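Field reference: sequence -> structure
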Amino acid sequence: MKQTLVSRIVIIILLAISLASCQQVAQTTLPLPTQIPPTSTPVVPTDTPAMPNTPEPSPTATPVPPTPTITAQAERPVESIDELVGVWQGSWSDLSIVLLEFKASKQSTQQVKGGGQFSGSEWYDFNDGLLIWGKHIKPMNAAQKCIDNPEATYEVYITYRGEQPEKVRFVLVGEDQCYDRQEFLDGKFLSFVGT
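Structure field:
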């Protein structure tokens, strides 16, 4: 037991000597710090002058004119096909948003917003403030009597906000064999989306 104790003491002493010599080597290899030479003109601390008692500037009460609001013009009958050309959006059966596009070629397309359920295309004409639906190009999911007799006439009224069309309203004149179209258009407003 004494032998192990003596051998452990010897090992500890050797470790301590080797660590001490490492520190001396590390200290001797580092360069000594150099002094920074003084500047040519020493900076003498001075007292900062006291600020005079001047009030803080307050924001001026410059009135900001309100943003002009462009009020909607009164509803009036559509005067030309050019006023209809573009994409209009409305609700069908309070379940779906339908996009109705009128093209200058007198072709219209209907599509549920976001794709899906149905889409269709049909011819239309416009004379003396009346929109006349014509033959289907691509029938929608419609009753056979609608596909066989797609013609219908609607009065169309438009509302502008400034120079921009805002909404259109359709009023059925006579009968429309296409029940879904009548439900979507008759007495309803469609909002202008764009061209």
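Note: The radius of gyration is 44 Å.
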